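Dear colleagues,

As part of the handover before I leave the project, I'm documenting each prediction I ran so the next person doesn't have to rerun anything. This entry is a single chain, and its sequence is reproduced below.
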Amino acid sequence: MKSMQLLKCFKTKNQAIRCVSSLQSFMTKPREEVLCNQAVKDAEKIVGYPTSFLSLRWLLNDEVANIALHIRKLIGTNHPLLNTARDLLLKRDVPAWGLIVLLVSKAGGLNKHFSDMECDITAGILHSQRVLAEVTVMIKTSNIVHNSLLNIDNMQSEDVVDLNFGNKIALLSGDYLLSICFRELAGLKNQKVNEIISTSLRDLAEAEFIEPRDKQNRPLPAKPLSVQQDVEIPNEYGTEPFQLTKVLGNTKSEWTLRHILGGGSLLAKCCQGTLQLAGHSDNFQKIGYTLGRNIALAWQTRIDLEIFQEDNLGPFSLISAPVMFHLQHDPSFYSEIISCVDGKVDYENIRRVVKSGPGLSETKKLQSEFCDKAVSILGNFTDSDAKKALFNMIRAM
């Protein structure tokens, strides 16, 4: 009997069709992914229900239903919003952030008396903390939707109308989610939390202005400096912006700052904010911030490593840690990267070259560094099921 072959097909740069067997990826998942998924499931039991439900209240309404109808009209246009919508429905990277905020909430406990009306007794947290977890997920989601905007200046005239319509839907959808986020934040009636979450939105915006960038405004790494410096990226607990001075070109510092601005600040300040809602001291809130920041960066290294697994094909971020560490090792390869400024990227070649260098091993070291820091910070929390769940999630990355 002939064995059944499962094939995954994609187009190469010269439009040729290439198929590879996906039987292994169909039958089994990498051990790390299985462990991480199990850690997430166990953590969801601690907080009471699957965190995919966090966004359910937001998504099951007439406005989002109308958006979905408009997105259907984009089928056949190749607008990035289609892939974004698919990924948001199929992947769990965003919901896990809400889960982390809930776990930090429960691990931190309540530092003063709250009425029964304010508490979710079954989960052991405040209703306001659950709202903040929802806000965390939806701000991140809105940012992902906004990033699916497409530069159509050089498109052919017959494509412009459909693609421009897709841009309008992406822009308005992201704006709608943000407006709901800040309406919910206002309902918490906590000015400090409102302020620090607003600064994380500023950080997300600033991440989009760090150059160099290609014609579609996708980020490219800066040219690596001949002498590398480990420039420390400070913890910004308040409203001060991050500084770019001496960061660009220093691989580790540049990667760290780009991804703090691109999302790490959001998770960090939501973890800080949830402890503020529970009445904790400023010092303990700062512990929540540093925990969230290190978990976010460790999570990002995991995403960056997944890009280079055998069964992953197609486009990826050129500011991923393996690419940037490879550039530090081989600065001459930067000419290949900067040539992508016109938007034409040979991802297969870049993936092959990076896998042959030290980029993956250096990224694993960076991941271990952030995980170890997160575990160390977690020691400031009292022992509980939530603390154990956070520990298991960190170690499963």
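Residues 157-188 form the longest helix (32 residues). Strands lie at 7-11, 17-21, 119-120, 125-126.

All the best with the project,
I.
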